[in-house]
Every structure is written in structure tokens, then in C-alpha cells.
Amino acid sequence: xxxxxxxxxxxxxxxxxxxxxxxxxxxxxxxxxxxxxxxxxxxxxxxxxxxxxxxxxxxxxxxxxxxxxxxxxxxxxxxxxxxxxxxxxxxxxxxxxxxxxxxxxxxxxxxxxxxxxxxxxxxxxxxxxxxxxxxxxxxxxxxxxxxxxxxxxxxxxxxxxxxxxxxxxxxxxxxxxxxxxxxxxxxxxxxxxxxxxxxxxxxxxxxxxxxxxxxxxxxxxxxxxxxxxxxxxxxxxxxxxxxxxxxxxxxxxxxxxxxxxxxxxxxxxxxxxxxxxxxxxxxxxxxxxxxxxxxxxxxxxxxxxxxxxxxxxxxxxxxxxxxxxxxxxxxxxxxxxxxxxxxxxxxxxxxxxxxxxxxxxxxxxxxxxxxxxxxxxxxxxxxxxxxxxxxxxxxxxxxxxxxxxxxxxxxxxxxxxxxxxxxxxxxxxxxxxxxxxxxxxxxxxxxxxxxxxxxxxxxxxxxxxxxxxxxxxxxxxxxxxxxxxxxxxxxxxxxxxxxxxxxxxxxxxxxxxxxxxxxxxxxxxxxxxxxxxxxxxxxxxxxxxxxxxxxxxxxxxxxxxxxxxxxxxxxxxxxxxxxxxxxxxxxxxxxxxxxxxxxxxxxxxxxxxxxxxxxxxxxxxxxxxxxxxxxxxxxxxxxxxxxxxxxxxxxxxxxxxxxxxxxxxxxxxxxxxxxxxxxxxxxxxxxxxxxxxxxxxxxxxxxxxxxxxxxxxxxxxxxxxxxxxxxxxxxxxxxxxxxxxxxxxxxxxxxxxxxxxxxxxxxxxxxxxxxxxxxxxxxxxxxxxxxxxxx
Length: 791
Hints:
Number of helices: 4
Low-confidence stretches: 1-49, 373-379, 431-438, 491-495
Largest sheet: 22 strands, antiparallel, barrel
């Protein structure tokens, strides 16, 4: 067992010195201190904790789910909220800031089988399991009103954040390009006219370091303000590569602490210009430099007939390829937001640009060669690499909104979106017992996605306490994928079939709409209902060209959803209880599976249906105790009586136990086994999720407080693939976190010890079917944290 924390503060200093960006951030902080009144004053400023002293009752939660500030209890749709302070607690051990949200909001699930650069989001069970770099997702990510559409851009970490909002269900009227599942919206802390700063730092197991900080204030009083923010996360390698046999890349020496670590360095600068009462100009620029390890697949961790992975060590793998699975991306972006208030209405323009490049390499079969024989024979090697050579995303939004307040509110706008990238895919598949299949094969693709939309929303108070809201959007979404080049190093240039689909363009123009009604029964009880229709544009998957196969495509999917709920504030404002029931149907749902030749393909299923409920409660029975709970229940089913998908088979042998009848058919590389997916639940759609939080503060004689806080999450039955088996499921996954600490008098600072995944649970989070390979959650991290604010 490796030590949890080595040599306390001295070790922390040594680790931070290894990360060059920390030095830059500290220098930047000193410079900012000089700007905001002198470095000495900055150093002597009194900090305050992130968690303020307990107050009577629960405070209001203000959201911008309708592009205007409103009390959460009076918004006519289902919105889940996570505060920035809570998110920083979840990531104190260096966890991915996006994956840490999974289960923290009822109905939200997040996972990745491609490391920290490709999170996949699911809301109410609707998402996309495809790991293709050009994959389309039905969940849209928005940071500070900027759309992050490409899967790599969606991995941009969240830091110095004020609040996270999860808008469930189709959200076509106001946000993004269009979405069938929902939106995750991140709002960072903005520059202000007063000096403000905050920081939280921690060090823990495996020399994990997490620093999330922001500092800002006026450069010119009442005219120009600035805020500088940074996130630095580090973890040393802790996973051994025990492979010592014959390998395709001639790597035969076992290596200790070969992988599992990362350096994720981020910085953001925001400027706010307010030359008058009517005009505001906000500029933002950010950069990310990430180096780490892509997902580790533990081959053979699953045994036929069981999903028990307890025998597989978390910190040891046997990879014969992939060069220890390196992963590296650099991302840069910026935006300009300008607003002019004409009085009865305000005009807002948001212009944004994002660019990224990098690669992810991995041993995709989780180890091969003699270590993993099939029928007593070594079965070969498998490696893949995806590389974005260049990606550019532009977006432009114009919106005119009436002045909020009164009985009638309105807004209209338009959006233009343009994403272009050039991507390389590399795949090596070599069988020791037979002829080479696509050895060292790679392709280069160009993807272009353009979209425009016009949207609007009106809200009118028909009578006292009764408000109706209507929204609509018309969207054109166009995609094009071109095969630029394909090379097979063992056989020279590989000729793509002359009649193959190597240049595909798809376009769809469709309306989307929503209608809701809100009844304010009492000042503390609101009832609402909402119905919405949305669509996701057509999708092209070009990765199959690496196997000399045509591109696969899927036409647009459409969704019709409904929900009805209640929002309450009870017991003298010490209890909030919100609950929603919902249902939806997705026609022509876009799915991913394998064809008879084992190629990953994209296709349309007939439809999928789902229904369920979500409930959230916060209770403050006494001033020093706060309790929270979230619950989601979901039933989903694919309705398609004809579609079949390939199941888990290797070298003509079925290696898992599917519950549906199996049909064997001849394929290009031997027998393929297929099952129907009619009636199966959507993949990565937990049947239930329970989230519990608690915090107790004990006042001390000196005016300070001792506190203990915990958070716990339980995930119900989850199926990872399109067909049901005994192996590729999880049920009862559990994770807990604990934090115990001291808050100084007048909230001067907060010092705590913490544990993430405190019980060391080894949860199954994903699979590679043919190789019975498992993907695990993060290990237990125990550490020390310090947080505060400076004024």
C-alpha cells in the first residue's frame, strides 16, 4: 500500500513546484495583489471560508434557466442545481470536475471510457455511448453562455464556478444548437467592482494535488474589472504495467507506477467593462494544457456468468501495446459578450471561438498475446489512437429580450454555429495465429458541422398566480465528413472502395417547441406542467473507414416529452421539497453497435420510451444541521422488433451470457452472433439513483466552528451495452465522501481532512465486450484541504 500523504506541507510544496503553471499562477497572484492596492495589503487580507456560518432557514436559489435571473421555486421546468462550493468538495481529491457531477443531480449520469478528454452525459437515461471523436450527444454543455459541442470541448474543466444548473428535457427554445436530453449549464464567478478572491487547495493520496482559485476586482473603479481564475490538478502514476511477454511494440519489461497520473492545468481571464448604465462588455479567454493517461481497460476482469470484479487489482494491468496509454490535449478559447439596454428591451451579442488539438492512445483490448489465450492460443494485439490535428469552433448568438418583470416577458434571437476539424484514427489489430487484419491502419477525416437557428419565447401571466410560457425554434443542422487519406503501413496506400461512401453530407431542418404552465398556489407552493418537442440532427460516423468500411450514418431523431411537478418551501423556510414525474418518446433514436463484421456502426432504432420521477429535498431542522437528498427513478425501453446487434464474441466463441436468443451468421472474419434489442433498457440509464448529503456545524467557545460533512451516492441497475447479459451490468454501485474540519472565528479560514470514495469501492463503470474488460471508478483519496476568501 502506498502512503496517503508524504511529509505534509513540504511534500505539497515539492509537488507544486513540479507543475510550472503553479509558479505562473503565484506570480500572477502577486501581480494582481499589486494592482488591487499593493502586494503587502493582499498578503495581510483576512480570508473567509467557502462555507459560510449557519443561518436560520434556507436561502433562495437563483437560476438563469430562462435566460433571466429567477427563483428556482418559480421556474416552470425541472432544474437541478449544484453550488460551486459543493462541486469543489466533490473534486478535492483531484477528480474530473465533470465526472464528479454524476449522480449529484437526480437524473444525471456521467461516464467516460476515453479518459478525461471525452465525458459522456446522460439525462433521464438519454445519451450516447459512442466513443468516436466526431460523435453527437443529445446533452449540450454550456459554459458562460458559450456552446461546447465537440466531445473534446465538452471536457473543458469547470473551476472558480458559481453554480451548475442541469435543465432536464428538450431545451430548444433558448439554449444551444438544439438538444433532446437536456443542458448542463456552468456559470463561473464574474468580475466585480469590489475586490474578491477565493481559493481551495488540497493534497492527498498518490500525491494528488488540487488547486481551484480566483482573484478579481476593479482595475478602474466603476469602469473596468478583472478576474483571474485557475485550476491545477495533479496525480502521480500509481498503476503498474505487469506485462512481460512478447509485445507488438517490443515492450517486454514490467513497469511500476507506469500510468494513471495526470497534470491538468487551466487558466482563465475575464474583463468586465461598464462605461455607462446601459452598455456592458464582457471578455473572457481561457487555456488548458492537459497530459495524462487514457482509460485503462482491465482485460479478463469479468468472468463469464458474473459481473463481480473484486478479484481484479485496480492498480495493476497487463498492457502489451499503447505505450502506457498516454493522452494529451491543449485547448484555447475566448468569448465577447456585449449588451446594450434600450430601456424596454436589451440587445445581447455573444461571439465565441474554441480550438483544440491533441491525441489519445490506448491498448484497446486491455492486453493480449500469450497472457490472454483463446482456446489455448494467443490471440494477438490491439491498439488504437485518435488524434485531433486541428479543431475550430465558432458561434454567434444575437438575442433581444424585454425588460424582465411585469406580467409579460419575451425574448427572440438567432444563432450561427460552425465546427471544423481534421482527425486521424489509427488502429492495429494483429492475430498471432493467422493473417494480419488491418495492421497499422490509419485514416484522416475532415468533419464540418454548420447550423443556424431562430428562436423565441413569451411568458404571460394570464391571471393572478397563473403564468403560461411558450417557446419555439427552427433549426437547420448540416454535417459533412470526408475521407482525406487512408494508409496501411504493411501494404502501402490502401485503396478505398470506388463505390464506397467516403464523402457524406447530411442536412435536416426541423422545428422544436415547448409549452408550460405555472400555478403559484401559495407563496410557498408552485405547481407546473411542461410539454416539449425537440430533435437531434443527423450524424455521420467515419471511424469505420479504418476497417476499410463505409461511413455509417443516422438520420435525425425527434423527442416528445412531458413533465409535471411541484416545488415547495415549507416549515418556516427550513424545508424545500421539489418533485417531478416525466415521460418521453424518442422516434428514430440514434444508437451505436457492431455489425456482422465487428465494425462499430451508427444506426437509427425505431423508438425508445421512458418514464420516471425525480425528487430533491433540503432540510434545516436546526440552524447548525443541513440535510439534503435526491432520488431519481427511471424505466426505459427500446422499441424495435427487427434490429439486431453483434454480441460479445472472440475468435468465434461467445464469451458472455446474453439473455436474449442468439443467432449465428457467417461474417468476413468468422461466425458472428447477433441478438435483438427490443425491450432492452437504454445503455447507461440507471434505474434509480440516491444522493444524500449532510453537514453539522458545532459552535466553539472562541467563535469558530467544528464541522463534519458527508455525501453518499447509490446507483441502481445499469446496463452498459444494448443487450442484457449477466456480465455487462452494475447494480448498487456506492461511493461516499467525508470531510471533517475547523472553521476559524469570523470565517477566517477552513482547514479540513477529507476522504473521497472513503470505503475504497471498486465500481464497474464501463466494459469492452469482446475482451471481458472492465473500467473502474477513481480510487480512494484521503487528504488535507485548506480554503478561504480574501478581501
